[in-house]
Structure formats: structure tokens, C-alpha cells
Amino acid sequence: MQYFLLTLLALLLLIPIVILIFAALKTRGAALASPHALPIPLYWGNITKILGMDTFWAMMRNSLFVMVAATVAVVTVCALAAFVFARMKFRGNNLAFNILTIGLMFPINVAILPVFLVLRDMELTDSLWGVILVQTAFAMSGNIMILRGFFQSIPSELQDAAYIDGCNTFGFFWRVLLPLARPALGAVAALTMVASWNDVLVPLVVLNSDKLWTLPLGTMQFQGQYSGSDIALTAAFVGLSAIPAVLFYLIAERQIVSGLTAGAIKG
Amino acid sequence: MSRKIYMFLSLLAILAFALTACGPAATEAPAAEEPAAEEPAAEEPVAEEPAAEPVTITWWHIQTEEHQVALWEGLAAEYMAAHPNVTIEITALENEAFKTKLTTVMQSNDPPDIFQSWGGGVMNEYAEAGLLKDITADLAAGGWGDTFAPGALGLYAYNGVNYGVPRDAGIVGFWYNTELFAQAGISAPPATWDELVADIELLKDAGITPIAVGAGDKWPGAFWWEYLAVRIGGKAAFDAAYSRSGAFTDAPFVQAGEMLQELVAMDAFQPGFLAATWGDEAIAMANSNAAMDLMGQWAPGAFRENSADGVGLDGKLGWFPFPAIPGGAGGAVDALGGGNGFVVGINAEPEAIDFLKFISSVDSQTAQAEIGMSVPVVAGAEVGLTDAMLLQVQQGLSAAEYFQLYYDQYLPPAVGSVVNDAVAGLFAGTLTPEEAAQQIDDAYAAELQ
Amino acid sequence: MQIGAVGKAGGEQATGFPVRAGDRSVIFFFLLPAFALFFIFLAFPIIKSVYYSFFDWAGFGPAVDVVWLDNFKRILTDQVFIKAVVNCLILIVLALLVQLPFSLALAMLVGRSLRGRAVFRTIFFMPYVLSEVITAAIWLILLNPMPARGFINAVITLIPGADPVLWLADPSLVMISIFVVLTWKYFGLHLLLYMAGLQSIPKEIEEAAVIDGANKRQLFFGIILPLLSSTIRTSVWLSVLGSLQQFALIWIMTRGGPVNSSEVMSTYMYRYSFVRFDLGYGSAVAIILLLISLTFSVAYLRLFPQRDHLSGL
């Protein structure tokens, strides 16, 4: 019964994804003529065409670069800040923390023009670094919260012990806390990866030359008013560009789950 | 405490400076940048020898179909080969993405050198904000301006100053599926509104969806109301409303709404037209799921792109002008239309204008016409226009005694989008014809204040 | 909201260790990158937006036409804005009454020891991994009104006599359709949170309750729900903020249409800033949205304070 319900639900949820995959494996004509039919015979032309496009691989590289850099930046910045908020007692700690959480209330689509102005003054438009900085800034709030919660859950006895062993605060952070926090850092990293990989507004506004484009911009282009009509090719592009994100998730899933779970266990 | 804050702020400043300082190194060829950071080419006379200062031209267009992209890229490559000092950076964006991105750079006073424009109200705002370059003198020199059809060129002028050149121009008309018309027993396309209504009934009786419209995208729906207003009120009604000696609440505009809602009431449009996009409209037409649609010169290309076989309606596609409305003040040859063009950003180098000249040459225009991408606006390029129906469109354009640019382009952008929204309300039945007219008039009055 | 932020907001008192010698520089340098990014990319844009919101400004050239609070007055009396607020509330209410209970029920169903639970978890979370652009594209195809194109209508019209449903074109249905898509995409995140929360409830407590004769209902309402309270608290908070800020999916799928029936605050803001070129007005909407989110957060965290710092997410 349990299995029946869950399986049924899983199948229902997968319908949209399955239809996408089917569409990618049809000829353009078949995708338009019979969009719901099984892709028989299988047609690999769309996939090979996309994989043969230099621009696809260039976008893949750019997306990967942005994703890796943004993830490293988010994990670093957030771990440092969260450590202070979680383990250091000083006046203004909570105030500072609350100020940073304002970021959650101000979504990027609301702020895109002023953000663009800042980037231009820093001469970071049409640069992948501009994208990375903005993505990092807007991903901070939530991730600092996750890490702070996790860092707080690490027993204070450990800190005492570390100090007694002669560690200074940085040493405790570096040698004790970070290794213990690996699941939470993994969760933060995985969620950042997904968000960065899927982000379209920031790259659209920041990047001009198509050499620097990321995959979501390519997706948008494929869906465009005139070219969006080749549903099969679009589906192939969309499907292929989503594969890395799905892979990262699968690899990082254990981390995410144990990160979230560990954070929930009493310290 | 204050000392700490001070220290913090100064560190921030240092950090900001450091980021700025390492910016250019990380930036691959900054595109539309401020003149100060640009190569010093502008100050010096441009030498013709190969040693000329390197110049970068940024060019944004909205052609994303494969063969169109290839055409533009080919032209850019050809130009760069002939002018080794020039680098052309092309940004090819889909329509909606283009608008979002352009708005951002415009609002930060940073226009590309050459970019897509539809002329009219939006362009005028850019011009007023000092974002566009005056190319009037360039057009006068060597007779460049004379190569264009005057009406089309005029769309890219504001207060007597030219800011750009047209790439194509056309009029909106009915594209119809001759096979489906034959199935419904319609022998000739309708010449009057009553005939159109009768044909709609015939099509419905034959179980055929009479009309496809992408009312969700708003502008395809707005064509209907605007064209009805053109036929009912003619030039006089629009001019009166525009100059405020009349108003958009005048009878012709209300009547246009009424007639539009009559069509909606008789189920002339495809199911779900309220959420449909122009893409849905094209798919419905291309696959013979609807008999006709009201659209501009780009429709046949879109039908081809959207059809299962890649052929579209070739061989069974027909075109007829918007039917006459007996008793209306507008003539049967008056036309609603518009076109595409390129305008020049304020920071553009002289090379950009030279390049613009190059891509609007007869050869380039002929090549564009040959692939059905443009209805040419340069004399001599019509030879490229092999498509019989595009020829009809072009003839319709040249025959028009009163040519009305689409309202959403002609009027200031804030008003144009209200027109589109209000007509969408007419389609949905949430606004009465009077209310829709009132909203448009209010928006226009507010804009003029 | 784009990222799946989980965690607690705003602890009530400073925590951790008293500052030791040399720690001032640790505090300073550890916070520096976060605050630098915050000031450059968040504080500055917020201040800019506040500034613009006092102007009647198309966004081109310098802003000169000061109108003070006129933009705010216009917004708060605009029927379309009120509609957008109502639509946001609809999304919030539906999320709280349908999406979250559904996620919790599913988390219970998967339980803690079901074989293959990782497989189900992965499948259920998959939509969250797909981008909003891709999600919108897929669902636009699924919801197409023509049975020949849209899968859902193709299935519906298999029933004799059933007419295709105009999921996105019918003003009275469009919010429901959007909610379904939002649920498809986001419930996996909440499911994951609840599964993590359930996992952290010690097995012994449940077993003890069962030995004491608690039935399933008592077990759920008496033991599980209270122990999950802080996870639920986080999940509700995220869900409400997400609903308030929902943008990309709705914009791509309906652009707030037909005729504003699916307008939410973000699409309304975007329409004025980028389509109607009324950036002053758009900025004022952005500020109102920020204030609403802030007010909600502060009120929520006051009403439901985290009882124990170390428990739950």
C-alpha cells in the first residue's frame, strides 16, 4: 500500500520530465505532430546536434566555472561569518546577524538595476566574475543561517578542549569545527550549486558577449520567439543542460540530507 | 565604537578599490563601456591605413533563427576582414530577453553601439534621455539617407533628428490557409467586415477554428483593436486623440472595442486564446489548426519554423488586407504596420555608423529579402523578394495613404503597454469598450502632464 | 526564493564563547567578506531603490521629478496591486494548507526505514533541481489548451464528453494551475526538511509511546508534531517568503495574465520597471515588498520564537 501510493505519486511527478525526454528523442516533425507519443523510432539527431555545437560546450564551461567559483565563495564567506555568529560572544552579534538576513527579504529581481549599476562602476559587466559576486552576495543570507544553526549544535565542550590543547580561536575553527561541519558545508555547497546553475537573470543582465554565456541563457535563446518552435531540439538542449545539475545533486544528496539531519540533532 | 565603524568603512573602501582595480584584468573585452575607458580612437582622426586604432563595435540584434544569425555573422566577419582594426561584438537575443537586458543598460546610460529598435515612442524616450546618437549628418552625406524608403526612415527620426535606419517594414494583414478556406466553401477572401463575419460562420460550421490569436502576448490581440480603429476612425480620429483635440474615448475607439468583443462572443478565436502566445498562434496556423490570423510580415517565416515538416503553409498560404468597414472614416488601403531597424547608441564610434551603412546596403538587404527575413526598405533590394505574399505586403505598404505605426510603438511606452493591457481586457471581457478606451485615454493624459 | 535556505533566523541572545584575546581581529576579518558583499550588493541597491521611489522617473537620464510619497499612494490605491497582494495571499494560504501538509504526509509515508526511501526522496526532490525556466517551459507544454499539444488536456479529453480545460487562460483557474506547478517544483524541499526532522526524533521516544498504548493519532499529534515544531516553523517561514517573492515561474508562464489574474507583487514590480518604464514606481513597489517581507519575518519570529537554540532547523 505504502509502496503503491509512493510509486504512483513518483510516476505522476515524473510525467513532465519523461515528456521532456521523449520530446528530445523525436524528430522535429514528430515532436510537433504527436507530442505525447513514445519516441519510436528513437532519434538521436537532436542530442548529437547539441553535443556537436561548440557554443553548447562553451556555455557548459562558463556555467561550470561560475558554479564552482560561486560555490567556493559562498561556502567560504558563509562559514567565516556563521562561525562568528555561532561561537563568538560580543555586543551586536545578533544585530549583525539580523542585518545580514535582510538579504532573504530582497530578491535579486527587485534589485537588478542598482546591482547592475554597481557592477558597471566596478567594471565587472560582461565578466563572469560579476555574475559570481552577485550570486554569492544574494546566496549569503540563507546559507549563513544554515551554517550558524549547525555550528551552534557543536558541543561547547569541544571548544573548551581545543583551547586547553592550545588552539587559538582560528585553530579551533580550522582544525575542529570545519571538519565536523562537513555535512552542513556539503548541503550549503549543493544548494548553492543548484541555484547558481539555474540562475538566469544575473547572467542575462551582466553578460553581453555570447562567448561568456551560461547554459540558462542558451535555454532562453532556444525557447525564443522564433527559434522556440523546434520543440525537439529545445527539449534536447534543456535536457542536456539540466543533466549536470541533476548529477551534482545525486552526488551531493547524501551530504545534503545528512547536513540537514545533523543540524537537526541536538548538540 | 565609532573608531571601529570608521575602520570598517575604510576597509570596505579598500576592498571595493581592490575589486575595481582587478576588474579589467578579469574582464574579457568590456563591451559597452564608458567613453573614458574606451580606446582613445575617438579623439584622433581615424586613419585609413591598417595601423588604425582598434575599435570595438557592440551590436545587439534579435534574430535568433539559424540562417538569420549566420547572415549577420557573415556580414560582420566580412566587415572585420576589410577593416582589421574593427572588432564587432554581436549579442543576439530573443525578443523578451533583449527588452529586459536593453532596459537595464539603458537605465544605466550605457547603450550598445548599434541595436534593434522599432522606432516610435520607446525610441523617442531614449532620444530624449540623450542615449542615442544623432546620425542626421551621416545620412545626408553621400546620399545614404536617400537609399531608404522615406516613410520607413522617418520611423527612426524624432523632432527632425535621425537616430537610426530601418531594416524592414511591412503592414499587418490576414494570413490564411487556402485549403481550410476551400474546405469551408469560401471561394474568395473577404473584402468587407461583413464578409469576414460570414466566413467565420462558414469556418465554424465546417468545424474549423476560424482565427488564431496570441492574446496572452497582448500585442497580437492589440493589432485587432488598432486596425479596427484605423478603419473606423481613420487618420483623423487618431490625430485628434493624439493631439488632444479629441480623445481615445471618442466613438471610433469605443466602437472598435465593441466590434472586437462581437468577434470574441461568436467564438471566432481558438480555445485558450487568452493565455496563448504569438508562438502558440504560429503553431496553430502552421499545423492547420486555425484558418487565419492577423499578423505582420514575419508570419510566413514563423509558420515554416513552427511546422512539423519545416515547410509550413507554403503552397497553401494566402494573404488579404484587413477588410473594409463600410461607413468607416478610414480607407480600405490605409494600413497598420511597422518594422525593424537599428539605432545608434550615444557612445558609438564613427566606425559603428560605417558598419551600419554596410549592413543596410542593397546587397545586404537583398540577401535578407532572399531568406525571407526582411521586407526590404532599400530601393533595389526588392529583387530579393521572391515570396509572392511578401510582395503583396510590400505593395500594400506602398499603396497605403495613411500608415499607422503600431500604437504600442508609436505612443510613449507607458501608454503603449496600457493599450496592450486594455485590449487584453477586451478579449477577456473584463473591460467594456468604454472602460478600455477610458484607461488608454487616462494613461495618455497622465503621460502628457 | 531561489536558494533552499534552511536554518533559524534571529537568535534571541548572543551565543558562544566570550571573546578571547586576539579574537577581535578574528571577528573583524571573518565578518569582513560577508559585510562587504552585503553593503555593495544589498544595502546599496536597497538605498538606491528607496531614493528612486520618491521620483517620477522613467529610468533614463537623471531623476529630477521628485514626487515624494505619490508613488506609494498610487500603488496602495491601485486595484491591480491589491489584486497582486491578494494573489500572493492565495499562494501563501494554499501553500500552508495544502503544500506543507502534503509534504509532511509524504515524509511520514516514506518514514524512516522504508526500503528504497532514498530512491523516492531523490525522485521527489528532482523537480527542485530543475531551473524555473525549464520548469515553466515543460509545464507550458503540459498545460497547453489544445489536446493535440497539451498532455493534460489530451488525458482529460479521453473521458467522453469532457472538454479541454483552459488551465492558464481561464482567469478563475490560473492561480490554481500556477500553484500546482509551484508545488511540483518546491514540495521536495519541504519534504527533505521534514524527512530530516523526522529522522532526528529519537526512535526510543516513539517506541516508548507505543508501549504506553498510544495509538497512531496520539503518536502523531502528541509526539511527532511537537517534536517537529521547529522544522515546521522553518518550513512555514521559507514557504511564506518564497510565495511573497515568487517571480520567474509566473512571469514566464503567464506574465501575470490573463488580464492581471495571476499578477503577484514581483511581476507587478517588474512590469512597471521594465515594461512600462516607470522605474520610480517600480522601486516603490520593491520597497513595499521588502517591508512586507520584513514585517512578516519580524512578527513571525516574535510570535513563534525558537524555544531551544540547539534543536531543530
Biggest chain-to-chain interface with counts: A-C, 108 and 101 residues
Number of DSSP strand runs of chain B: 11
Total count of helical runs of at least 4 residues of chain B: 19
State the helicity of chain B in percent bands.
40-55%
Number of alpha- plus pi-helical segments of chain C: 13
Low-confidence stretches of chain B: 1-48
- What value does the average pLDDT of chain B take? 85
**Largest sheet, strands/sense/barrel of chain C:** none
Briefly say what this structure is.
Chain B has 449 residues and is of the alpha/beta class. Chain B is 48% helix and 12% strand.
Descriptive overview:
The complex is a heterotrimer of chains A (267), B (449) and C (313). By secondary structure, chain A is an all-alpha fold. Chain A has helices at residues 2-24, 28-33, 45-51, 54-87, 93-101, 108-121, 128-152, 156-164, 169-180, 182-198, 201-206, 215-223, 231-264, and one strand spanning 88-89. In chain A, helix 4 runs parallel beside helix 7 and helix 7 packs parallel to helix 13 (231-264). The longest helix of chain A is centred in the first third of the chain and has 34 residues, at 54-87. Chain A is globular, with a radius of gyration of 22 Å. The mean pLDDT of chain A is 83. Chain B is α/β, with parallel strands linked by helices and 449 residues long. Chain B has helices at residues 2-21, 23-26, 66-82, 95-107, 120-128, 136-140, 150-154, 178-183, 193-205, 219-243, 251-265, 278-286, 299-306, 350-359, 362-370, 388-399, 407-410, 413-428, 433-448, and strands at 55-61, 86-92, 114-117, 157-158, 161-162, 164-171, 173-177, 292-295, 317-320, 335-344, 403-405. In chain B, the strands form three sheets. In chain B, strands 1, 2, 3, 6, 10 and 11 form a six-stranded mixed beta sheet that branches. A three-stranded antiparallel beta sheet of chain B has the order 8-7-9. A two-stranded antiparallel sheet of chain B has the order 4-5. Chain C is mostly helical and 313 residues long. Chain C has 13 helices and one strand. Chain C has helices at residues 23-52, 70-77, 79-110, 117-129, 132-142, 151-156, 174-199, 203-211, 216-227, 229-245, 248-254, 265-275, 279-303; one strand spanning 17-18. Residues 1-14 and 308-313 of chain C have low confidence and may be disordered. Strand 1 of chain A pairs parallel with strand 1 of chain C, so a sheet runs across the interface.
